[in-house]
Q: What sequence folds into this?
């Protein structure tokens, strides 16, 4: 048992809209990834992760329409200076913290959507939660440089192209910090998360069958060191499409500013990001 | 790596079995998950798991008909009790040990001690034990008989001469310089060894230790207020925009309370209760008063089985502690700065630490929060004479390094480290061998050379002076060499 302890940070997408859509499907007989099923699988997954090594630690960041927040460890637990690793926190308390946190977040976003914008889009601020998770990870690494960290993103809704820049920045900082990002997409395929897993060396996993737990345990639970033994199904194709800076559309062929590398779906003579002038002559000849 | 693989195999197996229900899985399927290059690792993991009786052949399990037996050839499964308990651990978090039996249910404690108090008490008792080890003549009653017995049994202390007083031994020094987790673990090991003849008692003790590691230090949330089951959350996203009642803020407050979990003493078997009592004497467990029927755990006890793995570098903990505003008021750590001029500055208030330092330091000054001492040849030699090693001294200094010097490489100035090692080598410069001096009355060197050669062949020649015809021979071979020399003498 000479391995270093590891820290798993889970980013849980708790946006009402996405889950509501899923649950509506479930009512029609589809059994793929309902909220309850996913949450229960998540709990068992976390529990087995904690069983893997005594010193393993977890953190959960949830994000919804109302914003993102640290669900575990809560500020109270941080203040007490106790952790799972030292036996200061019981796993029951972890679960109740997660459940309480999700509940508060969801009721907050339910209030928000009801009063302000009834038909608000179901796009969770994954980017916000990702950066919060990365900040937390960074703090833990500075406290104890030997700790191994990894990220798991559970996404339910579709990608939000307007947060393309923010998400990509998060992905590249994770890559730089050598933190693998695993992704579990319960909803539609996610372009951003495919790229995240590809760039950071994580696992991308799109749930298409009802047994979420099986996928979590077989694909995501093994540590980086352990994964090299496994014959996993890699990503055959990675969707590398970028979102354009002007309309936030996912595009395959684009105009790229030669100075700042901004991507545009339509030609414009002056780059909207850096103000560089494109020379029309060169284009026409 | 193997451990990793093993742990992974456990979980994968269980996941397969959650699904299959029946519990058996074909070996080939299991092998199929592993890359071809690593089948060796996989085979080793499976072999190890089988040796531990975690994995068993499916044929052994089913008492079914021969046809079913045939079908289950080549299948393996988790040992049923292991599987049952693993599933239980995964699905129902916090089955606290000794809690499910209503016979031993405890009423809520009126005066629940705070975590800070328990940990403080633990440090105090443990330091008393260590203090007894360093300077048993010190004031105070000293530890209980069981602790004394342990000290003697483990060879940490011995009676010197005819006096009743116990004196620290070489092993005792080693013990004292170790981390507290390791110390506790050594104590437990010696206890288990002393019980090794009685298989029943040993099993009892082991199961007690494992159950301890499932205890928690601070209490879980009270189920009455803060608890919501998953079901209630799942109602949230059902498109109803009705605001849900916000979770009561009381639950958040409750989280921050430093209440500790208590466990019933009566639920233990006699052997376990005896061990628990020993632990209470040492401070690993806490009991409010001797007649109390409940005990509380400490961090050390909970992490006992995982001992050293859980130990962080204390200085790092100090840095963290300085950051955290609400830090528990535990016994202060000692931090040491070693200067290049052999002066040592130790920030500590504890008598124990001072006693530990005086083992190899010459004290110069003692201030309220610090001690200044000098490493001298005499002080180090004194430590070396009692059996302590140079590497132990250096490790001790490194282990307690002050945060300001912890990132310096080397942590201890090179000249100091080298000098301490040189002082240790000084003591091993002279080698003693029992031997006999033979003054051979030969006329010429020819015969003497023959004898010397013969002794050399036997590996017994310690020293030879050809001009004087004098030879020193190891005691073991002296008779042979004398007989040989006699043979060469002119009659």
A:
């Amino acid at each position: 048992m000479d391995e270093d302890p590891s820290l798993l940070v889970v980013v849980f997408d708790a946006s009402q809209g996405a889950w509501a859509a899923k649950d509506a499907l479930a009512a029609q007989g589809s059994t793929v990834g309902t909220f309850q099923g996913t949450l229960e699988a998540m709990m068992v997954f976390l529990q087995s992760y904690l069983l893997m090594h005594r010193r393993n630690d977890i953190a959960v960041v949830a994000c919804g329409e109302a914003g993102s927040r640290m669900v575990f460890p809560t500020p109270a637990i941080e203040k007490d200076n106790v952790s799972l690793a030292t036996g200061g926190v019981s796993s029951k308390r972890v679960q109740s913290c997660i459940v309480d946190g999700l509940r508060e977040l969801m009721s907050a976003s339910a209030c928000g959507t009801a009063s302000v914008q009834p038909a608000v889009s179901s796009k969770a601020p994954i980017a916000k939660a990702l950066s919060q998770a990365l900040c937390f990870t960074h703090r833990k690494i500075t406290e104890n440089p030997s700790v191994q960290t990894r990220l798991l993103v559970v996404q339910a809704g579709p990608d939000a192209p307007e947060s393309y820049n923010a998400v990509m920045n998060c992905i590249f900082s994770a890559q730089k910090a050598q933190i693998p990002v695993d992704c579990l997409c319960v909803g539609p395929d996610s372009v951003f998360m495919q790229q995240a897993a590809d760039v950071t060396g994580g696992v991308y996993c799109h749930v298409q069958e009802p047994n979420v737990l099986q996928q979590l345990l077989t694909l995501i639970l093994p540590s980086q060191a352990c994964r090299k033994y496994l014959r996993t199904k890699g990503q055959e194709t990675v969707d590398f499409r970028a979102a354009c800076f002007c309309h936030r559309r996912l595009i395959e062929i684009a105009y790229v500013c030669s100075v700042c590398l901004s991507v545009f779906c339509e030609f414009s003579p002056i780059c909207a990001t850096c103000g560089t002038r494109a020379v029309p002559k060169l284009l026409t000849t | 790596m193997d451990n990793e693989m093993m742990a992974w195999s456990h979980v994968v197996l269980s996941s397969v079995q959650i699904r299959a229900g029946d519990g058996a899985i074909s070996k080939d399927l299991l092998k199929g998950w592993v890359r071809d290059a690593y089948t060796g690792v996989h085979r080793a993991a499976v072999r190890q798991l089988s040796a531990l009786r975690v994995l068993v052949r499916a044929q052994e399990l089913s008492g079914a008909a021969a046809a079913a037996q045939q079908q289950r050839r080549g299948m393996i499964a988790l040992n049923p009790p292991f599987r049952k308990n693993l599933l239980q651990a995964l699905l129902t978090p916090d089955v606290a040990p000794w809690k499910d039996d209503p016979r031993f249910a405890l009423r809520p404690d009126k005066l629940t001690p705070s975590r800070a108090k328990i940990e403080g008490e633990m440090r105090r008792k443990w330091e008393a034990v260590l203090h007894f080890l360093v300077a048993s003549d010190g004031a105070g009653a000293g530890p209980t008989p069981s602790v004394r017995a342990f000290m003697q049994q483990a060879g940490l202390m011995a009676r010197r001469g005819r006096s009743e007083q116990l004196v620290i031994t070489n092993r005792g020094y080693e013990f004292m310089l170790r981390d507290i987790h390791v110390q506790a673990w050594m104590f437990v090991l010696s206890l288990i060894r002393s019980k090794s003849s009685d298989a029943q008692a040993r099993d009892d003790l082991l199961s007690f230790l494992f159950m301890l590691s499932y205890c928690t230090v601070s209490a879980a949330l009270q189920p009455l207020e803060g608890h919501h089951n998953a079901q209630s959350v799942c109602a949230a996203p059902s498109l109803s925009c009705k605001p849900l009642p916000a979770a009561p803020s009381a639950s958040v407050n409750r989280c921050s309370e430093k209440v500790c979990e208590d466990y019933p003493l009566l639920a233990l078997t006699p052997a376990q209760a005896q061990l628990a009592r020993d632990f209470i004497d040492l401070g690993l467990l806490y009991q409010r008063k001797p007649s109390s029927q409940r005990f509380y755990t400490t961090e050390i006890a909970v992490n006992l089985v995982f001992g050293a793995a859980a130990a962080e570098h204390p200085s790092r903990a100090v840095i963290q502690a300085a950051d955290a505003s609400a830090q528990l008021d535990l016994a202060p750590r000692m931090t040491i700065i070693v200067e290049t001029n052999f002066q040592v500055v130790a920030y500590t208030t504890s008598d124990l630490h001072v006693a530990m330092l005086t083992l190899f330091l010459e004290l110069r000054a003692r201030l309220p929060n610090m001690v200044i001492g000098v490493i001298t040849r005499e002080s180090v030699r004194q430590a070396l004479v009692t059996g302590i090693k140079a590497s132990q001294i250096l490790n001790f200094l490194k282990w307690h390094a002050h945060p300001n010097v912890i990132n310096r490489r080397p942590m201890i100035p090179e000249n100091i480290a080298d000098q301490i090692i040189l002082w240790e080598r000084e003591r091993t410069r002279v080698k003693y061998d029992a031997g006999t001096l033979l003054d051979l009355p030969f006329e010429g060197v020819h015969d003497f050379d023959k004898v010397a050669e013969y002794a050399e062949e036997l590996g017994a020649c310690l020293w030879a002076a050809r001009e004087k015809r004098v030879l020193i021979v190891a005691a073991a071979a002296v008779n042979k060499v004398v007989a040989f020399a006699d043979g060469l003498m002119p009659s």
